[in-house]
Amino acid sequence: MLNKLPSYIENKWRSIVSSCLKNGVNPTLVQFASFLSSRAEEANLPMLEGTRHTKDAPRTSKEEYKSKRKNWHSSLKTETTKTDSCAFCQSPHRLDECESFLVIPWSMRKKFIFSKQLCFKCCMPEHVAADCKATVKCQQCGDPHPTCLHTQPKKSHDNKCTLVCGDQYGCNDNSMIVPVWVRSKGSTIEKLVYCILDPQSNTSFVSDKVLQYLQLKGEHVQLKLSTLHASNHIVNCRRVNKLELLSYDRQTVMQLPTVYSRNEIPARRSQIPTPDVAAKWDHLKSLTNQIAPYMPEVPVALLIGNDVPQAIRPRDIIAGEENHPYGQRSALGWGIVGTICKPPAVSNRIISEDLTNSRVFSSTLYKEVITSSKVQEMMELDFADQNVGTMMSVEDKLFINTLRDGIRQREDGHYEMPLPLRNHNMQLPNNRLLAVKRLNSLKRRFSRNPTFKNDYFTFMEDVLAHCAEEVPAELLNLANGKVNYVPHTGLYHPRKPSQIRVVFDCSAIYQGTSLNNGLLPGPNQINSLLGVLLRFRRERVALMADIKGMFHQFFVNECDRDLLRFLWWKDSDLKNPVTEYRMMVHLFGATSSPGCANFGLKKAADDGEKHWGKEAADFVRNDFYVDDGIKSVSSPEDAIALMKSSTGLCADAGLRLHKWT
Question: pTM value?
């Protein structure tokens, strides 16, 4: 709460805290509440309303104003030319326009600007925001801050809706908006944008900023537009040809006809489909791994009309009941169309809606009297530990039963369990052609980026040594519908730019299906993060550790390993022929892996409790969030004992508990 107060009030409270500490007492919450009440009364004195706290500065003459403005322009020009490269990637563009910088988490962007001592207004060096005279406007919300520091507004939860709502009360629907890559034909410069698929438009449009990024100019023309707002409206724009569109997974490429530019593409970001929306509807749950996660830094900058029928045409439909949203697959990916949440019959909210680009609707709302108990209930929402209870779906029960019946402990201590398939009679098409295509694309990337190649090969050598095996010769031509090839790619950790992780793409679609479509994710049995943190605060001595390579410590039954085949060069030499391997462990990228790893970890705690004690077993069972464990105990002796016992318990299960702090 203190962090949300203005700095001058925070400083006053610091003085009170300092006085209390000098007297040997700690300030109480009652004192803090009384302090806030006093400050609020001071700020709302009626007789001082509208007064200024500073003297009016003398008015500047017209000549002085022109002189200052001229000097400011020249100084700003001089200042901007001092830094002609991005502080993050050293490329010739501003930090606020850096694609690599915009994709890292917001907190890391803010920390980077602070560490480089850059201005938080214009992102330039040698001055601070208080002295900055640049005019800055966020490209996302229009507020006076750099685009790279834009944050999404927090969604409200006062209507206690059990489904997924949009970011505004009157906008609770999804449309066919999918992420795509756009580039000029023959160019290597490309940009990730959200694309609206609109069958009611007979023309396609792109934003001016995308054309500027792609270094395209186009021919200036006048276009006659007819919309609900105006008919035969003449607008000035540019006409561009030879644009190419790639699906988010880069598996589909299509040529666009003539495209016209607009200053911006009108759309509400709350209409972008997300995996969270799909997860809340039973008939759409299969799309949670097909729809890309929401990317707040990616602009809505492209609209494809019915002049590109291959993009607009529905390929598949997943429908629920008559009034439910439905899933639709286009050549560019899956989307969700329709109302995703019905407005409640009772609301405490006062609604103000901008009519621009909005629907006209009618609804009946009743105002509820807000009592003190309601206020207390709302205040406690943020501190409630979410408990999913014991209710499990049929698929969740199938997941648990499959692992419980199939898990076994190997001679080396590691646990081995089957892949939890939705249907044990599942038949998958042989997608080796897809894996070959993706491997060739990876090879071209190796030739362009030697550093990426070296990091990738180092990672794969470790995978081949500990986690994979070559497919036996007698199984190479196996054709029983239980053979699947998993493409793979490399990603760098945003906080560790030199650390690569090879991710196996179990969501790669071939002939309308993928491996993840046939895997059960299982029930959410991960410990509540809030509960782990609250228990961590109980005692005075704290300790923490994590499990090294958790997913790769749990093996897959041999009968299921052919579903995890992948292609790589023999002895990691590009000159050697491509060889078929198969993973022996659960993959980072399979929808079932988190559930399997969590099940195996709790199984290890249950099996090791008798030998290593209840304290170690409870620590592994209850105080781990995925692969990170934190715990507090009453004394250093207890901490040392817990470290030894829990490390031994994990070692018996083939798990390495390390990085003890």
Answer: 0.45
